[in-house]
Structures are given as C-alpha cells and as structure tokens.
Amino acid sequence: MAKLEYLLKKIMLIVGIFGVIIIYGGFLYLQFSGRSTAALPWFLLISPWICVYFGLTHVQQVGVIQWFVQKFTFKKKA
Hints:
Layout: H1 2-33, H2 42-55, H3 58-71
Helix pairs in contact: 1-2
C-alpha cells in the first residue's frame, strides 16, 4: 500500500507541474496576444497547484501550510 501511495503522489506532482506550465503558459499567451481572458474561471489557475500540493510529502504539506499562515497573518504593531 505504501508503494501505491508513493506512486500516486509522484503522479499528482508530475500532473500538477505540467498543469502549471501548460495552463499558465496558455494564460500568458492570451494576455500578451491581446485576447480576452474573461472567459477563464479563476479556479482554472488554482487547480494545478492543488495537484502539486497533494503530490508533496506530509512534511512538505505542513511546511506549505505554515508558510501560508506566516505569510498571511497580520500582526498588529504596538
């Protein structure tokens, strides 16, 4: 079962990386060619990152969550 989980995580990571490259490449192409990107839903740009996240090991996933919490936690200065 551990081998299957390892294999699936690697597949998710690879699919996510290719998804980021292809989707963001297409998005940038549309932006620079002057065509409208209004028809693209916002979740289209986020979805490959979900595959990348679930392709990471547990320790790396926790690190990502901690990074987001640290990045988006605003502390009030006294």
